[in-house]
Amino acid sequence: MSPAVLVRPRPVHRAADLLSAYLPGSFYYSSAHGSILADGVHATVETRDGDRARAVSAALAAAARAGVDHPMVVGAIGFRPDGPASLVVPALVRRACAPTGDGPTGAAVAPAWTIAPRPQPSHYADAVRRALERIAGGELAKVVLGRCLDLLADAPVAVPALLARLVRADPTAHAFAVDVSAPGDPAPRTLVGASPELLVSRRGTEVVANPLAGSAPRVADEAENRRRRAALLASAKDRAEHAHVAAEVARVLGRFCRDLVVPAEPTVVGTPTMWHLSTRITGRIADPTDPGASSLAIAEALHPTPAVCGVPVDGARDAIAALEPFDRGYFTGLVGWTDARGDGEWVVTIRCAEVCDAAVRLFAGAGVVAGSDPDAELAETGAKFRTLLRALGAWER
Q: Is 206 labeled as catalytic in the residue annotation?
């Protein structure tokens, strides 16, 4: 059957039911467009040659020939081109409408935590200073530097409860849970998070990307929040950083799309913990049957945007490898799904953690540009950790 005449299946479940049914090993994804719960593995997508979009297209075609109804590929791809990927054709996919925030929260998470930052906060600030030296020397225009928190609980972490808390805290976020277990892991490993940043979605001919760059922490006082939103919109530094990202996303989308619409001015969007400068870019695919214009093909062309890597990309990647004392793995990669039509949705893997038994590693990053303040970038990463720390019940620590 030609992809042009495939019929997209309609949601038949309740979003809360899918969230209740999630178990580690499943794939869960929800956004304002709907919810997906995928179980079992019909086929694993082999991506050793690096051409992931082509490998996914071949896997979907093989699944259709094998009689899989409405086959799709789900999973996650790491930050580096030679990094990890966990992509499968699931045996069973259930769909529902978008979550409403009234789903289950699950059992209480472990109350006792040991927390170790990596690197130490002072060392992260020093890394920002070294990045600023590279920027001043003309080597870079921007680089995004990340850091981790390694948490150890006094009992195994209940991933379903953690996921449910993330969804309930922000039903409009792109929430996800993906099995990313690797050889040598002492227990199953799950990548879980609630990303605010849409890398790209494709539905028929319509393509949408929503880059975020330029951030400020959100607080409890609404008057102060209004001041922070206004200051973010007026910040020359943050607007310049955002303009880098939006221009690059628009440039790449222009290779795939006609009728590209790029707003002249950013807006401010909020999560429960942060404010971000945002630009929603839309376009239309000229030929939706072209496998080279699938949602994953576009996502891979966009990745990594300057919002998670830097400018220029190769120099920023080298600086990240030199200045970050850990392997990002899936952090600042992409997570989502694509189907045999080429439709799908991929988000930037931020506001995330990897959970393995009682151990949790949280990730956060901040964009360093000329004029950045090391202490302010450290504080920004601390604010971004709050999404997962609150869901884990570890914010007080």
A: no
| Catalytic status, residue 46 | no
Tell me the per-residue pLDDT of 303-337, one tens digit each, with 9 for 90 and over.
999 999 999 999 999 999 999 999 999 999 999 99
Taking the model in full, what pTM does it have? 0.94
Domain extents for the chain? 3-104+114-392
Nearest to 337 by CA among 5, 9, 49: 9
How many angstroms separate the Cα of 201 from the Cα of each of 326, 336, 343, 383?
30, 10, 7, 27
Which of 197, 248, 324, 377 is an active site residue? 197
Positive or negative torsion for Cα 147, 354, 337, 105: negative
CATH topology of domain 3-104+114-392: Anthranilate synthase (3.60.120)
Say which of 142, 354, 377, 380 is annotated catalytic.
Answer: 142
**Tokens for 104?**
């289950």
Tell me the average pLDDT across 176-201: 96
**pLDDT confidence tier of residue 51, bands split at 50, 70 and 90:** confident
DSSP assignment of 323-386, as one string? H-SS--TTTTSEEEEEETTS-EEEEE--SEEEEETTEEEEEEEEEEETT--HHHHHHHHHHHHH
Q: What pLDDT, on a 0 to 100 scale, did the predictor assign at position 101?
A: 72
